[in-house]
Amino acid sequence: MKPVIFALALGCATSVSAQQAADAVAPEAATQGTFAAMSPEIAASFAAKADRRPVEASNWMVAAANPWAVQAGADVLARGGTAADALVAVQAMLGLVEPQSSGLGGGAFLVYYDAASGSLTTLDGRETAPLAATPRLFQDEDGEPLGFFDAVVGGLSVGTPGTPALMQEAHERWGSLLWADLLAPAIDLAEQGFPVSPRLAGLVAADQERLARFETTASYFLPGGAPIAVGDTLINPDYADTLREMATGGAAAFYTGSIAADIVQTVQNAPGNPGVLSTLDLSIYAVKERAPVCVEYRAHDVCGMGPPSSGALTVGQILGMLQPYDLSAGPNDATVRRLIGDASRLAFADRGRYMADSDYVPVPVAGLVAPEYLASRAALLDGDMALRDVAPGNPEFDHALNWADDASLELPSTSHFVIVDTQGNVASMTTTIENAFGSRLMVRGFLLNNELTDFSFRSHVDGVPIANRVEPGKRPRSSMAPTIVMQDGAPVLAIGSPGGSRIIGYVAQSIIAHLDWGMDVQQAVSVPHAVNRFGTYDLEEGTAAERLSDPLTALGFEVGTRALTSGLHAISIGPSLLGGADPRREGIALGQ
Ligand code: GLU
């Protein structure tokens, strides 16, 4: 099978056919079409794409993890749709072409700037624990935590999906085009078929054993027992049918009726690992509007998703602690890395202790990012060496808190996209089914999430409860950090990433790269990663970050080297729009 160069044809503003996308398109075509510019995805390594330039446009822009999804969003924006319209189209398409990362069976967080009202809103479309779940969901008879994949694969880990409700909520609030028209391109492509991308093929090959456990999943990803290969045309008529039902019936068609019944049946009868999700859980699911969490940094307001995500709080804590320090020496400077690394360790210590679904446990949201509190934590960084001891602090709160530190493991998959429309509305959305391929259960053409494993498997330590323990109806703590950076009340940067709890480090570093190191959005998402989550200081394998190993070890950090597969997508908003797509994934930015 010859490798396919996965790029988009840009000759017209209409949908791209499967054949067009499967055919290699010379990058020069990018500047000749209706859309001014793009960075085409090719099946190349990070190194080969590391010197990408940002995409520039003046009217609208979309950046996402897959060119088909970007094209679907671009088509909507080109015909005057809003960022909310485009996000529906992008999400519907991602669920088809990047099914391992997000989709109808998952959850998402959206940060949205509405230009007409000048307001920033965050919507929580996170999955919920079934009402029949208990804090012991992921424990054996002795109360010991299950092995991670023993919990993930099957029905036990499946939370009530939130993404369909979030798509509809965003569209109802800020959309202008017809809902059904926004789903149509994904319906068409699901029926025509799309070429399997290198990333999807690679992930299927690596996960064969788990995917093979369930018949429906196996027959889609491992037809005839062999993994789908790069360039194969994959059709998904079940997904087309599901979207068609949603096109006429809205999200209600998903949360009630036969789709909901099928989801529940699949979860409750998962061989070997049945779950407790019920039709009641689906029928009562609701998107929640939350107050954005904003932290001041370098005369900007960095705003994002509060609990149940730890994203904005932890990114905000890191930046808030770094505020008094000069980071201008750049990414290769060991002192700069010491400061970022230790600020991250301190923030992660608080995250493990205090952050969870604030509808269930009191979370000191304001106290955790209060300037006085951050200044007191920042003062701890004022030495020459890595901190010897790192512990949670004592943020101010009007409620006695006694939580034990959590133990939850988050492995990376997920997707992030950003959109700016012609009216200046901005969407920054991180969307997930948690692990790659989620629970591995597939129904009606989409995969079901394993989001519940974002809860702490342990419920208590020495009799002290853990804030992020499982509880009925609760939303598992997330690290997703969809972000909009504001200056003088106007958005200047939209950014986010997948990457499990490393999302926090990826997003914080990119914001620092943009604001402190003077990098454009493409450079900011491409800069080699160094992330610390309160353990080893992880340096990105095969990049300049590896050279930090000796100096950081000398400063007292425990250092490791590994692949750090972020999927950052960013748009900066100034006199023109600049888009950046992470060279580590298959995404592009596209604008006009
Ligand atoms: N489930 C994770 C979270 O919500 C995201 C997983 C990922 O990014 O890979 O934080």
Bound molecules: glutamic acid
Biggest sheet: strands side by side, in what order?
1-24-3-11-12-4-5-8
How many individual β-strands? 24
Q: Roughly what is the average pLDDT, rounded to an integer?
A: 90
Structural class: alpha+beta
CATH third-tier fold name of the largest domain = Glutamine Phosphoribosylpyrophosphate, subunit 1, domain 1
Q: How many domains, in number, for the residues? A: 2
What is the CATH first-level class name of the largest domain?
Answer: Alpha Beta
What about the largest sheet?
A: 8 strands, antiparallel
Level of helix content? 25-40%
Rg (CA only): 22 Å
Tell me what the structure shows:
This protein has 592 residues and is of the alpha+beta class. The protein folds into two domains: 8-288 and 409-591, Glutamine Phosphoribosylpyrophosphate, subunit 1, domain 1 (4-Layer Sandwich), CATH 3.60.20; 310-381, Serum Albumin, Chain A, Domain 1 (Orthogonal Bundle), CATH 1.10.246. It has 21 helices and 24 strands. The strands form six sheets. Strands 1-24-3-11-12-4-5-8 form an eight-stranded antiparallel beta sheet, with helices on one face. Strands 2-23-22-18-17-10-9 form a seven-stranded antiparallel beta sheet. Helix 4 packs antiparallel against helix 6 and helix 7 (179-192) runs antiparallel to helix 11. The longest helix is centred in the middle third of the chain and has 21 residues, at 334-354. The radius of gyration is 22 Å and the shape is globular. The model is unreliable at 1-44 (pLDDT under 50). Glutamic acid is lined by residues 410, 412-414, 432, 434, 451, 454, 478-480, 498-500, 503. This is Glutathione hydrolase proenzyme. The active site is at residue 414. Pathway: Sulfur metabolism; glutathione metabolism. This enzyme consists of two polypeptide chains, which are synthesized in precursor form from a single polypeptide. Residues 1-18 form the signal peptide.
